[in-house]
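Sequence, C-alpha cells quoted for completeness.
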Amino acid sequence: MSKNKPATLPPGTAIGGYHIVRRLSSGGFGVVYLAVGADGGQVAVKEYLPSSLATREVGELLPQVQPEKLSLYRLGLKSFFEEGRSLAQISHPSVVSVLNFFRENETVYMVMNYLEGATLQDFIITSRDQRKQKVFRESTIRSLFDEILRGLRIVHQHKMLHLDIKPANIFITDDNKAVLIDFGAAREVLNKEGNFIRPMYTPGFAAPEMYRRDASMGPWTDIYAIGACIYACMQGFPPNEAPQRLEKDRIGLALSRLRGIYSDNLIEVVEWCMSIDPLSRPQSVFALQKELSREGERRYTKLTVAEKLRLQFDTLVSDTKKNVQNVRDATGIGPTPK
C-alpha cells in the first residue's frame, strides 16, 4: 500500500447530494472541501480520512484500510459520526453549525456552514509581524474570548469536549464573529485506543493530561487550551508545551514581562487556566467567564527599573543555559549547566 497521503476527492465529485468544488484544508484525520448543495448554496464538507490508517488512490472514492488497522479505523469512524450527531444538536453563533452528516464510500461526511474570513492564528501572525508592544489590545482579547466561552459553555452542557482548541481552530468571520471549529473527538478516541506515532495533540495548547493515557479529561482540559490561546494573543507565539513545563515551568516568567502592558487580572487568569494541576484550574467555563468579565477590576503593575533588569538577567541566564545544553546535547561535550 502506498505511504503517500490519501488522495482528495476531485472537483465535481458527487456525495450525498453535494458536489465538491475544491479542497479547503486537510490534516491527519480528514479533509475539508468546499461544496455546493442542491439549492446551489455553499457548504463545507469534512470527510473522515485518517492518514495514519487509510490511503486512497487518485480517482478512487473508497478509502483502503489494511486489515490490522480496520478495527481502529471503524472506532474513529463511529466517534466522528457521533460527534456530527452531537454538534447537529447545538445551535450557537460561536460553534460551527453542522447541517448534515451521512455515511457513504465506507466513511463519514460532516456538512457544515461555509465560513468566510480567517483564523485567529492568521490574525496573531499578522499582528505579531507589525512588532507593536501589544499583539492585541486587552479589550479585544476579552471581547473575543467572551464570545468563544459562550459557545464552549454550550458545548460542555451537551456533555462534549472540544479537545483541540487553538488559534487555528478559532475562526473569525468577515462579519467579526468568533467561531469554534474542528472538534477532536475522533482524534482523542484514536489516541486512547491506538499506538500512533503521530501526536494527537497540538504542542503548546494541549493540557498535560492529554499526554497521559490514564488521565481524566474534562472541561478543565479545554480551559487550559483557552488560557494558552489568550497567552498566544498576548505574546504572539504559543507557550511552551506541557512536557517542557513539567521539567521547568517558565510561563510565570514569560507573563511577568507583560505586567504593565496587560492588566494583572488578565495575566492571573491565564496563569489560572494554565495550571499544571487540573484541579487548580477553573473547573467550569462559567467560573472562567465570571473572572474574565471583571473589567472594572483591572489593575496594572508597573515594573521598576530594578525589576526589569532582574527579568532581563533571568532571561539571559535561562537562554544561556539552554544554549549550552543544546551544544552539549549536539556534541556530547561539556558539563550539564546548573
